[in-house]
């Protein structure tokens, strides 16, 4: 029997701030399923039609690297500057600094709750461009799909960094060990 140590300030089991709502799930669905998958499908079909595979793959790799850089710089900035009363970014700063006070809490936030804000941002930014743009360049769509997907999941990846290694799925632990996830 594995005994999980109790965090110093155990969470209240019915804490509504940790629970995903239907609104959270809807934003995740629109961000992941609609926005990212539309770009990914356009990248794959465009690559198949043009027999151009290397460029979309390289663009996807670039999307991964730039998403990692952008989310890292954003996290560093939010962690080090401002407070809850900072205009425009105050609630985001407060939420980002919470794991430093209570690292156990971020590991208990349900999936859609932790990523819905980024999914909403991606949906509101990328979906209109995807729908309005007649561009069928698989390279652009490859970049957009991977970049958007990595941005959406960046907070979940960060939450997994606060999870004890013994509680991580083997794939996540392996990706962390390889330096591909935080």
Number of domains: 1
N- to C-terminal separation? 29 Å
| Integer-rounded radius of gyration | 18 Å
Percent helix among the residues?
55-70%
Number of helices: 7
If you average the pLDDT, what whole number results? 85
Total beta strand runs: 0
Counting helices, strands and paired strands, the structural category is mainly alpha
Shape field: globular
Stretches where pLDDT is under 50 for at least 5 consecutive residues are none
Secondary-structure element series = HHHHHHH
Strand content: under 5%
The quaternary structure here is single chain
Main sheet properties: none
Organism: Carpinus fangiana
Domain Lipid desaturase: 64-182
InterPro entries: Chloroplast_FAD_CarF, Lipid_desat
Transmembrane segments: 26-45, 57-78, 140-161
Word description of this protein:
It is found in: Membrane. This protein is mainly alpha-helical and 182 residues long. It has one domain. It has seven helices and no strands. Helix 1 runs antiparallel to helix 6. The two termini are 29 Å apart. The mean pLDDT is 85.
